[in-house]
Amino acid sequence: MHLRAIKESVKATVLAYEKGIDLDIHTAFGSDLMSDVLAYVEEDTLLITGLTNHQVIRTAEMLDLKAILFVRGKMPCQEVIELAEEKKILLMMTKESLFTVAGILYGEGLRGISI
Question: What are 49-101's pLDDT values in tens digits?
């Protein structure tokens, strides 16, 4: 699924690295626990989270994730946005809950990772 389509489906706003908006994502994973992200997530996965600190960007960098979607209207600080831009990680934010976002994207054909 194109990140542009995801953005439109969940009414998200791009916060960083807009150049990544036309990339394809094959799976999604929703969590606020970065230990779970490290344990289960694979490349080409959209990370959906309400956690907005530096740890999220560093975790995405370690796993070579290309995109993070912040939920519940959570806005990262400017330092986090700049770090994502530097690391070429697309950041988006939606006012929807994680549960709602997961349902919308599942309904559009995006699947979760296999554990």
Answer: 999 999 999 999 999 999 999 999 999 999 999 999 999 999 999 999 999 99
pLDDT tens digits for range 31-44? 999 999 999 998 88
At 19, is the secondary structure helix, strand, or coil?
helix
Cα distance between residue 53 and residue 19, in whole Å: 22
The answer to whether position 12 is within a domain reads: yes
Q: What is the pTM of this model?
A: 0.95
What tokens appear for 12 in the block? Answer: 């998200």
Domain presence at residue 32: yes
Which residues does 64 contact at the CB level (< 8 Å), separation at least 6?
43
Residue 80 belongs to domain with CATH number: 3.40.1390.20
- Locate tokens 């740890």: which residue? 55
**Which residue segment(s) compose the domain that 18 sits in?**
3-110
What's the DSSP call for residue 42? -
- How many domains, the chain? 1
Answer yes or no: is 115 within a domain: no
